[in-house]
User: What shape does this take?
Amino acid sequence: MEKLNLKFLQSLATQYPSVAKACTEIINLQAILNLPKETEHFVSDVHGEYEQFLHILKTGSGAIRNKIEDVFGNTLCARDKKSLAALIYYPEQKVERMRLELSEEDIALCTYVCPGKNDYGPLLRRSLTKIEVEG
Assistant: This one.
């Protein structure tokens, strides 16, 4: 085992002959690990299916669900997370189905979780007004 360690250390010594060079490489590698990951999204084979494509756009290809999980992890149950996601994806339909008044906190929460930072207040208020008029 010592021979293996010695061989490994000798190899490192040739690549990084000084402590400063080794430290510089460690800092560089840590910086690379902390860079944001690239996002690529490929959608194919929708064949003009507008509804399916719109769903992919509204759900942010799972990014919104991930954000909800990051923010609310263990504080919300799975059902509430799913309900919040549906409210963000399809606010008009979800509010109409729920038939309840949303608080300012609920609206602020939708805006906070949305990666595009859309202001959901006006949209949700129109939906609520529509429900009241029709209801």
Q: What stands out?
A: Helices lie at 2-15, 19-33, 50-58, 63-72, 78-89, 91-98, 104-113, 121-134.
